[in-house]
Structures are given as structure tokens and as C-alpha cells.
Amino acid sequence: xxxxxxxxxxxxxxALQQKMLLEQQDLQDKLQRxxxxxxxxxxxxxxxxxxRIEETQVLIQIILGRDDIRVxxxxxxxxxxxxxxxxxxxxxxxxxxxxxxxNIEVQRDKYKAPPQRARFHAxxxxxxxxxxxxxxxxxPDRYTIFITEEDKFDKGLPMYHIENTITELGDExxxxxGHIIYVNGEYRDLATPIGQLMHDFACTQxxxxxxxxxxxxxxxxxxxxxxxxxxxxxxxxxxxxRAKRREMQVKLELAKNLIENTDxxxxxxxxxxxxxxxxxxxxxxGRTA
Length: 289
Fold this sequence. Notes:
By secondary structure, the chain is α/β, with parallel strands linked by helices. The protein has helices at about 5-35, 40-50, 55-65, 115-125, 195-200, 210-225, 225-260, 265-275, 275-285; strands spanning about 70-80, 85-95, 100-105, 140-150, 160, 165, 170-175, 180-185. Strand 2 and strand 3 form a beta hairpin. The relative contact order is 0.11.
């Protein structure tokens, strides 16, 4: 073996060692981030509840104060789109044995959970509750639930229930089956189920979680090899999604600027910014893409 071959082999070994070192550092970085996560954080919240019947059932039972609710399906990060193209990704969508629908949103910033957002979430989920020609009276109840890390209304209450009423009849319930609930993530009265639940949502370590079902799920995700693998995959997935969202936002802002400040055709703008023509046309009409 000549000197040139030996040199190339040494370089290959050094490159392989460097790659392995970088991968190990990346893994350690991910594990450190996972260790700090709480159920208020998107990544851990999704891992705890995605397709997890028992965990989602516990969550809904505590919030509604009922132990007779039986969840039959649950999914996280479900995307809905209205007829005008406005998309929204819902944190948790669940149905129970009575076909009632639950949309649960976990929001760290209370200012990102305005009443209008609750109204929109209610609307996009309501349209899924009836089949073609099915009578309106058969429409099942729908619960839109926001768990905000901060107290949305700053009144110190554990929850805030919003129901439609008839003003002229002394605020008699409208009984349309629509329910909106804001859960106060700052509430910490451990003598109450909501206080215990919000305490659990804020925990970084499984051993501190009070609810046994949630504690075991978080323990698996944070303290087992299989759970760590799931979490690392989710961390990568969410990083990619965030990067794509940032890229899309940059493209949208650029397209808006070109529409407002240039004489370029919509076709040319779509081509230059690399957006679908339909999206650019929506922006030109003043719609949110």
C-alpha cells in the first residue's frame, strides 16, 4: 500500500470520527432540550397525547369535571382549511363515544389565544360534525378548549366557560351545543383537579407529575431509550416545520411587498418568489394566505 493510499485512508477515518463526534454532540443537545420540556411545550405535548386514548381521556375528564367521558379517537397536529384557503393546525382533536368533538389547544402566549381564534377554531371543526343531508338537530356537541400558560383573563380563576345565551330572555342558554373553555395555566391550587393538572403541565421531570397516567407517559418519553428516540425524531420534525414556516413567511412578505410597490404581474411575482399563483392572487385580494 503506497503512501497516497495510506494518507487517504487516514483522512477518511478522521472524517468518519468527526462525523460521529458531531452526531453525538447533536444527540446530547437534543436530549438536553428534551429534559427541559414540559407539556406546555409543543413537542412534548404532541408526544404525550398523539393517538394516546388514555392520556387524552384523562385530560378531557379533568377539564370537564366528568369521569364518564370515553374517548375513542385522538390525533394531534390536524390541519384544517376553510373554503378561502385559510389553514389552521389544531393541537389535539378527539372524539368520544357520543361523537362529541374536542379541540384542545395548548398556548404559551395568552395573546395568541384571542376570542376570534376560538371562534375560528370552533367554525372549522363544526363543519366536520354533520354529513350531507344530516339534520341539524343531530349535530353533536363541540368543545373548543384553550389551555394558556398565562391567565388569559387575569382573574385568577381556574377556568373560564363561554356559552352562547339569549340576551332578551335573561341570558337563557342558547343550547346550540357549542362550548368554549379557557383553562388558566397559572392556577396551582393542588387541592383541585385543575390545579394539579396545570402543575403537571409545568413539570420538567416525570417524578414530579401527580397524575399517574401522565407521569408514566412522560417518564417513558424522557427516561427510556425508545422514548428518547421518539422525542429526538419529533425535535427534528418540528425544527424542519419551523424552518419551512419561516421560509414561507419570508416569501409571503416579499410577495406582499412586490404587489404593493411594483408593477409586476401576479404571474411574475409568483415565479420570482416561488409561490403558487393562487396564493399570490389571494394576497392581491387582501386575503390571508
